[in-house]
Structures are given as structure tokens and as C-alpha cells.
Amino acid sequence: MAHISVSPATAAGHRVSPSPRPFSFLYQRNTVPSSIGAVGLRSWSRRASPAASVRAATNSNQAAAEAGTIVNPNEVPVLSFSQAAERLNAFQDSGARNQSYMAMYSSIFGGITTDPSAMVIPIDDHMVHRGHGVFDTAAIMDGHLYELEQHLDRFLRSALMAKIPLPFDRSTVRSILIQTVRASKCTQGSLRYWLSAGPGDFLLSSSGCTNSAFYAIVIESQSLQVPTGCKVVTSSIPIKSPQFAVMKSVNYLPNALTKMEGEENGSFTGIWLDDEGFVAEGSNMNVGFVTKGKELLMPNFDKILSGCTAKRVLTLAEQLVADGRLSGIISRNVSVQEGKAADEMMLIGSGILVKPVVQWDDQIIGSGKEGPIAQALYDLILEDMKSGPPSVRIPVPY
């Protein structure tokens, strides 16, 4: 794996010196240890016993110490750029990351890097400290970008709603994305990209940001999730207002809490209801149903994010109408009672494609097993990703 390399001149004449000794870690009483991480924090938030909390913290601290990523708060070193780069490399080598990052573009340094240690953004970027940014994604399947144009359309709509000007025109953004995937040499995975108000200061308004910033990253993934049945729960987390729900911004705290709430209740995710009590969407996926009359039913997109995958599924589902497996396709308000009484329920999104739901709260959906329509739609979208028309598949010139 490549590493950040800094010449002595770059480091202002300072030679890179190895850390003189391993780091130790102490934390203040009544504070959450910063090294606990996602799993530990969930345990901490459930108010485990003091002894259990100490054990969890101790185990986490030990693992972090072995990775060389924590410090003694009473002896925090002041690092040169080259020493900071060395520690970023050590963090990357520690295995703390759970995904493989193959390439990143940043308009800040105006190029692509394939070194995960260098895949960073400025701390004063308004996307980081104010949530002033939008993002989108596209799947990479067999060396092709799936629905890139459709995702770019939504990306630009979100940018306009968020009042963030593009640093380049659409064709340049598109070219940068394709070149980033080419540099990654990744043929299976996902491409994620962000537009932020940019770095400049820590104030609330973005007026001090000289230029917006554009970032993109390629994440390698060799396998797709098998469409096994799952459970969902009705979310208690307030849904975002329509103005923000239809915009794909980085403000995903409600989404993250909804997903976590589902997991804490032994389910895959939570299901949001809109302000009138109708079915809205999942944490980051759309919801579909098969009615008793064999109609494919989805909630309207006027108050929720219009999922590119969901919209493509609606188009592909016409094949099931043609062969008689579905009687029709419709989008309208769906009550909770109607949803729970459906023959089938499914979650639809780019990360899961089509995932059957077999139980919602205490209600078994249909037969309690994966339904045939959900499986058929999964097969259709997967085949579309592999051999669909040029309108949804763009070859990457590796």
C-alpha cells in the first residue's frame, strides 16, 4: 500500500524521527473515552454497569494502544507535517478502517490520490462543522458506473437547494468522477462524492468560504448483499421536514439514529412516518409494498428522497406487469395499517438493492417469508446493473 512520502525540504528541514515510546491513554471521569469507537459507544449509551464500562474502555484502550493511535493527555506531542503524515500512515496500517478506499479526488489539492492516508479534508470545511454539504453515489459493477447520470441530476438539484455553487461545470464533474474510478482500478464497489461550501472559517455563514469544494472516493466491495428477509420497527426519531428530506445533504444524524434505533431493537432499520402518519421511508432507503391485489405500491416522493434505485425498480417492474406477476404499479399515500397488511414489503436502495421485510414491529408481513416479487425485482435490478442499456451503464476506460 502506498504511503504519504514527505521530503526533508517539505518538512521544513526536520528529519522524521520515530516515536520514542508507545503511547498510553487516560480519560477523565464522567466522560466518554474517545477511543471507544462505534461499538463501544453504543454499549456506553445503554448505561452498562460501571465495571462493564471500565472493562469495555480498557479493552478498547488496549486495542487502540496496539494500533499506536492514542496519546497520553499529559504529554501530547507537537508534530511536524512529516510526523503527522507518519502517524496517518500508522493509523491506516492499524486496520481501524473497515472498508477499502481505492482512490480519492479533492479539489483542495486538485488531483487524485490512491493513498488512503492522504484521503482527508480540511477541518474548517463547512461540510464538517456546519453540515453544509450535499452528496451522492453510484455503484461500480463490472467496470461500469451504474446510473451515474441519474445520480448526478439529483446531486445538482441538491446543490442548488443547499445554495452551493459548483466549482466546475457538470461535464467536468462527470469527467473527474470517471477518472477517479479509472485511477482506482476498482471494477466492483461504489463511487461516493460530495460538494461542500468549502473551507475558510468556523463561522455559521459560508460567506467566508472562498470556493466550494468537491470530493470523491472509490470504495471497493466484491460482494452484494443476499436479499434475505429482515425485521423493521417504526422509528421514534422525528422525520426531517420535506425541504430537507428531498435534498441529499450530509445532515444524516436523524438517519443514523433511525438506523441505530432499529439495530438496538433487533431489527434492520427503522421506518419513518410523515407528519400525517403515512409511511415515508427507511433510514436511507425507500419502502415498497405488494398489495393484496398484486399492485406494486410505493409512497409518493413529494416528502421523501426520490431514490434513484427505487425509480429504476418502478421502471423495471413493468416487466412483471407484462408477464402477469403484477397487476399494476402505483405511487400514493400508504397508511401503516395498509402497509402491515400487504402481501409483501421491501426496502429499496443502492446499498441493498431490494431487501424483503418479513416483520414490521409485531406484525408478520404476508407469509413471514421472502416474497416472490421482491426476489424478482432484485434479480431485475441486478441484471440491469450487469447488462442494462447505455442510459444506465457507463464504461470506465481503465
Structure description:
Strand 10 (286-290) and strand 11 form a beta hairpin. Helix 1 (37-45) runs antiparallel to helix 2 (50-67). Strands 7, 8, 9, 10, 11, 12, 13, 14 and 15 form a 9-stranded mixed sheet that branches. A 7-stranded antiparallel sheet has the order 2-1-6-5-3-4-16. Mean pLDDT is 86; it is low at 1-61 and 63-67. The chain has 398 residues and is of the alpha+beta class. It has 2 domains: 100-220, D-amino Acid Aminotransferase, Chain A, domain 1 (2-Layer Sandwich); 230-387, Alpha-Beta Barrel (D-amino Acid Aminotransferase, Chain A, domain 2). The protein is 31% helix and 21% strand. The chain is globular and about 65 Å long. It has helices at 37-45, 50-67, 81-93, 126-129, 148-161, 170-184, 242-245, 253-264, 308-316, 318-322, 336-340, 372-387; strands spanning 100-106, 111-113, 133-141, 144-146, 189-196, 213-220, 230-234, 269-273, 279-282, 286-290, 295-298, 328-331, 344-349, 353-360, 363-364, 393-395. It has 12 helices and 16 strands. Belongs to the class-IV pyridoxal-phosphate-dependent aminotransferase family. This is Branched-chain-amino-acid aminotransferase-like protein 3, chloroplastic. Pfam families: Aminotran_4 (PF01063). Its cofactor is pyridoxal 5'-phosphate. Keywords: Pyridoxal phosphate.
Structure characteristics:
D-amino Acid Aminotransferase, Chain A, domain 2; 31% helix; disordered N terminus; D-amino Acid Aminotransferase, Chain A, domain 1; 7-stranded antiparallel beta sheet; single chain; 9-stranded mixed beta sheet; 12 helices; alpha+beta; globular; 398 residues
